[in-house]
Design goal:
Strand content: 25-35%
Number of helices: 2
Structural class: alpha+beta
Number of strands: 6
Number of domains: 1
Oligomer: single chain
């Protein structure tokens, strides 16, 4: 499933979390997900504390996780947000 993530949908999910989530400093919290962007304005991160998704300037991404169970739970949370975001 890693290869199936669309960077456009990740940006839409990030924007939804930022718009509908609670801000805490530079982070936005929404339904178990934490979204944060970086100074370059293009790189962003979405995490649930067990899995971290980093999207970089060139729309490439990487996922950091310890096991497939955590990854699947993260995908479920992310897919719920993507389904709510415009174009999702």
């Amino acid at each position: 499933m890693e290869n199936n993530l669309d960077s456009r949908k990740i940006y839409q999910a990030f924007d939804y979390i930022r718009t509908h989530g609670k801000q805490d400093g530079d982070q936005y919290h929404y339904n178990g997900l934490i979204a944060e962007s970086f100074q370059d304005g293009y790189s962003l991160q979405i995490t649930d504390g067990k899995v971290t998704l980093n999207l970089s300037f060139h729309q490439s991404y990487d996922l950091d996780y310890k096991n497939s169970f955590d990854l699947e739970a993260f995908y479920e949370k992310l897919n719920r947000v993507m389904g709510k975001s415009p174009g999702g």
